[in-house]
Design brief:
This protein is an alpha+beta fold and 412 residues long. Helix content is 51%, strand content 20%. It folds into 2 domains: 198 residues, no CATH class; 196 residues, no CATH class. The protein has a 6-stranded mixed barrel. The chain has a two-stranded antiparallel ribbon with strand order 11-14. Helix 1 packs across helix 12, helix 2 packs across helix 12 and helix 10 runs parallel beside helix 15. The radius of gyration is 31 Å and the shape is elongated. It starts with a helix and ends with a helix.
């Protein structure tokens, strides 16, 4: 009988203990999938929502615009740059936008805020949060009209309704103060008061005229990716191209440092929680294997007395750990799969606790708690727990190899 077969049979000598230990590994799989899956889901949602608020997963802009935005800093030949970006496989859409600060005035009040000038033909609910958040009226009908879309809180402060006029005042590319009149065509509500109370959306071509821009000049090209994890790689590829030598290419971490920082802190907390769970699982495995070794000291002494080497005893106990870890992972996958399918497709509705949504880093998220797993997360969970189970069996295996045959026989 070889060591592998002997190890498998040894596991079932104490079926109850084996199943309890395997169940603890399975429970570790369930918790790891839940914690990691929640992180993969919510971090992606936050990054996508933040990017859809104006700057994209990757932003192409004039040098120093991100640090100190100004109408004087603008992209030239934006259309040719846009076409170059669209050639990359992971790019979902590229939108030309102008961002700036303005004073919005009604007949009753004036409020300072931020505007985004967009081309409605390039925008949709997948790449623009404001299009998705429309609650009344319509988004801009064309890029050259005189309409404006306001956040609900901003409209409330200005005491404006659909069809009313608003004057916006800003500075053009020469630093001169300029004004224009627009009529409110719609209202959006993201749920984040700091956004709904300060942001307006304007037609791109109209704002270009007001700011004295050329038709091919904008503030930023907002690049939306099909997978935000590719932003660093794509940014490096773009920076290596000669077309982007005279512009600045930034990823979402650089344009949204507050959000990136909050995600980093939350990830650290998530990792610590998972580490504590892993240590509890490892302690259970270590306890089981060590008890097994101590109970079988006489057995190990006899085996060594008839010629088995300490090395083979070590290998035997490690093989038992291997099969115990594999059994635990199999049970874990079986138990976790229905839970994962439910949480990834349906999720838990937390509306009663959070209302219609909650804000994280200035980004509004819906209250449906779901999970998703990236391929690398699945691999990390399986390899991590499997390796941890093997490491937990290393000390008991070492103890088994140190059994003195004569002494072990004397104690029984």
């Amino acid at each position: 009988m070889n060591l592998n077969t002997l190890a498998r049979r040894n596991l079932w000598r104490h079926k109850r203990r084996t199943l309890i230990t395997a169940s603890s590994i399975a429970f570790g799989v369930l918790l790891a999938v839940t914690f990691t899956g929640a992180g993969d889901y919510f971090y992606t949602r936050m990054i996508d929502a933040g990017s859809n608020m104006g700057m994209g997963h990757i932003s192409v802009m004039a040098h120093d615009f991100n640090r100190a935005p100004s109408s004087k800093k603008r992209l030239h030949q934006a259309e040719s740059l846009k076409q170059a970006v669209e050639q990359f496989a992971n790019v979902k859409s590229v939108a030309s936008r102008i961002q700036g600060q303005a004073m919005f005035s009604s007949a009753r009040k004036s409020i300072g805020g931020v505007f985004f000038a967009i081309d409605p033909q390039q925008e949709n609910s997948d790449n623009n949060l404001f299009v998705k958040a429309m609650v009344e009226g319509d988004m801009l009908s064309s890029a050259s009209g005189s309409s404006i879309v306001l956040g609900t809180e901003l409209a409330k402060k200005l005491k404006l309704k659909i069809g009313k006029k608003v004057v916006y005042t800003t500075t053009d590319k020469n630093g001169d103060i300029v004004s224009a009149i627009a009529r409110v065509s719609g209202l959006f509500k993201t749920g984040a008061d700091e956004i709904d109370g300060s942001v307006a959306v304007l037609p791109l071509n109209k704002v270009q005229q007001v700011l004295d821009y050329q038709p091919d000049e904008v503030s930023v090209l907002a690049v939306i990716l099909s997978d935000q994890r590719n932003s660093d790689l794509l940014r490096e590829q773009m920076q290596a191209m000669p077309q982007f030598a005279d512009v600045e290419v930034l990823n979402w971490q650089q344009t949204q440092p507050d959000l990136a920082g909050m995600i980093a802190v939350d990830k650290s907390s998530n990792y610590i929680s998972q580490l504590l769970i892993a240590l509890l699982v490892a302690a259970g495995i270590l306890n089981t294997m060590l008890m097994s070794v101590l109970e079988r000291r006489r057995e190990f002494g006899v085996m060594m007395a008839v010629g088995m080497s300490a090395r083979n005893l070590f290998v035997l106990v490690m093989l038992e750990s291997f099969w115990l870890a594999l059994l635990g992972l199999i049970i874990g996958v079986i138990v976790t799969t229905p839970w994962f399918l439910f949480m990834s497709q349906t999720g838990l509705d937390l509306t009663a606790a959070y209302g219609d949504g909650f804000s994280f880093g200035g980004v509004l998220l819906d209250p449906i708690f779901k999970i998703r797993l990236f391929k690398e997360s699945i691999i990390a969970i399986l390899i991590g727990l499997f390796s941890l189970a093997l490491l937990s069996g290393a000390y008991p295996a070492w103890q088994a190899g140190r059994v003195a045959p004569v002494e072990s026989l004397k104690t029984h």
